[in-house]
Structures are given as structure tokens and as C-alpha cells.
Amino acid sequence: MSTIRWTEARTTRSARWHSESATPPPRRVVVADDRMKADTAYRLACEGTALLWRGDFPNARQLLHAMGRRIDRNRSHTGGGPAESFHLHRRARAHRARILGRLLVALDDDHSLALRRAPDVRQACTEAYGPPREPRVVSLRELLGVIGAREWRRKGVEVPALGARIHPHYGVFSPVRGEYVDLVAQAALPASARRGTGPRTAFDVGTGTGVLAAVLARRGIGHIVATDISPRALACARENVRRLSLDARVDVVGPALFPEGRADLVVCNPPWIPARPTSALEQGVYDPDSAMLHGFLHGLASHLEPGGEGWLILSDLAERLGLRTRRELLTVIEATGLRVVSRIETRPRHPRVRDSADPLHAARAAEVTSLWRLGRV
């Protein structure tokens, strides 16, 4: 971690800088409190100056919202085709995150927040950042995300296909879009080529919270191996598997894309959009150059038992945004020694489908999520 410095009460002070989005430490930091006007804060942030907040915590949140309104007022609405609209939308979101990320707060060496009327954030920060070691400075925007993640983890997300709740950790994609879970819960299981029975073993590649591994276990598959490249996801999946009393049938291993060996069924729900994530939180949504998708397809045939199937769960949103074509997907499938056995589809049910103010509304409204059943040629 880097160190940032600022002057306070005529004394030069310093602390460790922490950013989950790998934002560089600000070069200039000034102290701000309840007397600072939103216009001044916005102007300083746009000029690259970070504001270390020393006032009331609710007032800091109000200031953040006021700065956000000023960003939205000045946002350009110019756009062309779907791909251009997507890139403009991403650029606007990155600009917004950059400006709002310049309102900072200081955490003490026990992760406490020494501001008036501040909540107790120690547990939330420990879950996100690990055990406290020394004072650090983070953006208020990031801290609010950490606090929100703590609530998601505590309350969990109801998954009807499981009849239970899944508890996502900070930085792990939450199963709030249930249509992809329902596809795995409802698709007919492949018959084993050797015995004419259902699959005995399955791999869940890129398990995240472990929700799909749990669904497969509840469907009666005897042994599931779940993998992920993220240590946070591995810890999250292990905790959820234990909560559901499925740890005797589900092994969570990694970090890795594929486990060793072969399985009758290999399931993967990769990030759907081929674009670069700007933070750890976006890695469940954005897959640069479709790297995970291609990695899964290139490794699938060698990890399937004879007669086994690979299930690829993928939205066509990238196709509707002009970021990937269906022909490109089918070409990779063919080039990796695979064939399409069949495909089942569903429509998303999340609120953004109906949000006409969303710049990507047309693509989202037409989006289809598919479970591709793949076999070896």
C-alpha cells in the first residue's frame, strides 16, 4: 500500500492509502468538514484534490450525494450505436467514480471511524480488508460499499431454487439475478454414458458464492468440486456450503480455473461482458477479452468424462451491445473440439429491464440468458 500525506493543524500527517479499485493515492489532500460547500468540494475534486473528511458522518454522505448530482447535471448524453453507448456509459461511470472517490475518511488502527455520528464499521472493514494492522485512509464511497456488503453478508440473498439463503462476501458476485440459477436448477441432467444414470460428479468452474455448486448438490449429484481464482470467492463458497450442510459433498478448491481430473458435468457462469473491470467488485460482471469464457471452452473437453456435458450459462447482452457476435462464440466452441447439444433460454427479471432511463435500456429489455449444453465432438 502507498502512503498519503496532508497538513492538519499545521502538522504534516500521513497514513496508508487503500483502494479496492487500485486507484493511485491522491497527490494533494486537504482537510474538509461541515463548513465546506458542495460546489467547493465538487470543484476541488474535479481539479484532482482529495478531501479528507473531519466533520459529521451523515453530512459527509449528504455531501457525496450533492457532488453526485453535480456530476449527473454535467453529464453528456451524446451516443451512437449500442457499442458506442456502452463505452460512453462506462466512461461516464468511471468519471463519476473518480470524482466521488476523492472524498476520503480515515480509519484508525482498529478499523474504527472517528467521526461524529459514525456507525461502528469495524466488523464490516475486517470482513472486507482483513484484520486491522494500522491506520488507513479510504474513499467514503468505498467504505459505504463495505458497509452495504456487510449487510448483504449478514442477511443473505434468498435463492428460491435452493429454498435457502446465500450469503455473499464483499467483492464476490451476489446471486441477485436468479434466472441463471433457475436454468441450472431446471435443466435436465445428462445421462452418464457408462451407466445410463445421472451424473455422479460435477465441477462448478468460477463458483463465486458457491450457489451453483449447492444447486447441483441439492439435485442429487454425489460429488461436486467448486473452483475459483479469487481467494475471497473461495472463502465465501466454503462458508455457504457449510451453512447449507453440503460440505460432505462439495469440495471448494483453488485458486484455479479447473480442478484436476474429469467430471460427468462441468458448469460455468463466466462474467458476461467482455470489458475491463475497474474494481474487484466488477470482476463478476466484466471479463476482459472474454478471457474466462475462452479459458473455460479451451479446457472443457479435456475435463469431461465420456458422454459428459459442459453447461455454459451466458447472457447475449454482449451481442446486443455489439461487443461480441454469436458467430465468434460458435467459432470458439467448434475450434475447441466441442459441439452444441442443445440450448435453453430465459428472460431476465431484474428491475433494470424496465428502467427506460438506463442508457442501455434497449439492449437490456431484449436480453436473453441461455444455458448452452456442450459435448465433445
Automatic annotation (TrEMBL):
GO terms of molecular function: methyltransferase activity
Domain of life: Bacteria
First and last residue of the signal peptide: none
Assigned keywords, A-Z: Methyltransferase, Transferase
Location of the Methyltransferase small domain: 166-314
GO biological process terms on file: methylation
Region span, Disordered: 1-26
Pfam families cross-referenced by the UniProt entry: MTS
Protein name per the record: Methyltransferase
Annotated source species: Microtetraspora fusca
